[in-house]
Amino acid sequence: MRRRFRWYMVLTAFPFLAVSGCADPSSLPLPPPSVAPAAQPAASLKVDASQIRPMYDHRLLAVDLPTVVRVAMARNIEIKEAQENIEASRGVYEGSVGAIFPSLTPNITALGIQGALSTTSGLALASFTHFFPAAAIEWIINPGQVAYNVIASKRRLEASELQDQAVVLETTRLAAVQYYDLVLNQAQVSVAWRAIKEAEELLRIERLRLKTGTGLPADELRAEAARAGKQQDLLSALNGFYDASIALTLTLHLDPTVMLVPRAGTMKQATLLREDLPIDDMLTTAVRYRPDMEAVRALLAAAEADKGATTWGGLGPQVQAKGILATQPPAGRLADTEYRQSIYTTTGGFNWSLATFGRIKSAAANMNIAALNVDRQLDEVQAAVVTAHQASLIAAKLIPKAKQEVASAEEALRLTQKNLQAGTGLTIDVLQAQDAADQARLRYATALVRYNESQINLLAALGLIDPATVEGRPAPLRILGHSLGPTAPE
Questions:
Q1: Which pTM was predicted?
Q2: Residue 408 domain-assigned?
Q3: Which domain holds residue 205?
Q4: Exposed, middle or buried, 346 (CB in 10 Å: 0-12/13-18/19+)?
């Protein structure tokens, strides 16, 4: 008899052990490290949106990258939704813990009698009203099912917290990339403005040559057509800038009629990770520090606990205890006195059904789906790391070549313009040189912006990006024996 009592006490205490023991300190993820920014290389891009008129009057806001990230952290809707999901998961967890304890059902009964009443001494007239309070305490528990439910809800709470971190990471990445897109579109507008000025200067020269008799009407028409084409390019560039501004306001949860422009200054090439870091180390880091990877692992643990809860719920023992404390009138007498009654019942047993096996099968399938989600997330994380790393390497090689192309193209344009003024050059040569210079400027701006975006994407793919990293305030980091930060100058 004593052994059975001890076995019963172990089963009933198991849920309490699950609540206190499901958070193992050794299994908690390490805090994500920070990454130090590199010393800025020589490549840079002038940022100036003074030529761009706002979409609507008096609705223009100049921003820089740190401001964009801070506003995104404070106002982004996805971040707020993820925080509410945490509260919802916490409520489910607290509800599963509350299922361990008995429920209390207080009630009150009103009894009113007017007229004849049968008693032991015969009929009697009665007119009275009595209130009889009662309270019932009921405890129905399947120890194994409750324990696994607590574990599953705890794991889902952990997953929601990790998903919140993943949303913050993705919002930081998206806001930074959209800011760089805004800078790139501003550079395209600047190139279009400069192209228009060059086209207008060429048209002025051709008209002057035509008046002096050294030019041809066809050259003037070519210059006019080139200016019209550059004006169309400017309108297209402005529309692209407006689209980039609207996309950024959506991430920042701002009024889309407010046009965001990059703050005037210089955007420099931002190297956030060493380019010689082995790809295997980066893949290992991503698997370890990406919060979305940890989230799917937590969801897998929750699915495993769900299977255990389903199995125990259908096959395990159930214990039911009920106690009632009530007052009521004695039977067969006038209700002018009350009796106080206490009733206690305890039962234990099983509730077996063939439907349980179907539920167990469904829970096992859900657990397998969760395992497949872990594999899918792993593939996506590794692909994101490789993609961002390769984009960073290619963009780093493009920047010096694009810079050299700009210098050569602008010098060629200067010489052809000089030859045209001297009468030794042709208009078509100047037009071709202008197009080559415009394309070179755009390629340089694109390469520089794409490099910075690839560095942001690579940090996000590794799970190491945060607002401090984007603002350039992190500490150096070493993982797996390799420094992830830039090499210190000698």
A1: 0.80
A2: yes
A3: 35-101+143-316+355-483
A4: exposed
* Helix (H) / strand (E) containing 64: none
Select from 271, 283, 302, 285 the least CA-distant residue to 382.
Answer: 283
Pairing of strands 122-141, 478-479: unpaired
pLDDT for 117 equals 62
Decide if pLDDT at 111 tops 90: no
At 11-45, the pLDDT tens digits run 344 344 344 444 443 444 444 444 444 454 568 88
Residue 338 falls inside a structural domain: no
Q: In this structure, are residues 447 and 395 in contact, taking their beta carbons and an 8 Å threshold?
A: yes
**Based on the structure, what is the number of domains in the chain?**
1
- Predicted local confidence at residue 472, as pLDDT: 58
* Mean local confidence (pLDDT), 75-86: 93
- Please report, to the nearest 10 degrees, the dihedral formed by the alpha carbons of residues 140, 143, 145, 147 taken in order: 120
Rounded Cα–Cα distance for residues 164 and 152 (Å): 18
What does residue 371 show for φ and ψ, rounded to 5 degrees? -65, -40
Burial of 28 (0-12, 13-18, 19+ CB in 10 A): exposed
4/85 Cα distance (integer angstroms): 43
Task: For residues 388 and 383, give the distance between their C-alpha atoms in angstroms, rounded to a whole number.
Answer: 9
Residue type at 171?
A: T
The better pLDDT of the pair 283, 28 is held by: 283
The CATH number linked to 440 is: 1.20.1600.10
Question: How far apart, in whole angstroms, are the C-alpha atoms of residue 392 and residue 412?
Answer: 30
Average pLDDT on 339-353 reads 74
Helix axis angle, 279-289 relative to 355-422, nearest 10°? Answer: 130
CB 296 within 8 A of CB 166: no
**31: burial class by Cβ within 10 Å (0-12, 13-18, 19+)?**
exposed
pLDDT greater than 70 at residue 200: yes
Identify which of 472, 47, 449 has the alpha carbon closest to the alpha carbon of residue 272: 472
For 48, phi then psi, to 5°, come to: -155, 110
Residue 70 lies in a domain: yes
Residues present in the chain in total:
490
As a whole number of angstroms, the distance between CA 69 and CA 176 comes to 7
Instruction: Tell me the pLDDT band of 120, cut-offs 50, 70 and 90.
Output: low
Supply 58's token pair: 């008096």
Q: Is the pLDDT of residue 7 over 50?
A: no
User: How far, in Å, CA of 452 to CA of 397, rounded?
Assistant: 13
Report whether 96 contacts 305 (CB < 8 A): no
Please check whether residue 339 lies inside any domain of the structure. no
Give every CB contact of residue 88 below 8 A, 6+ residues apart in sequence.
160
Report the SS3 class of residue 463: coil
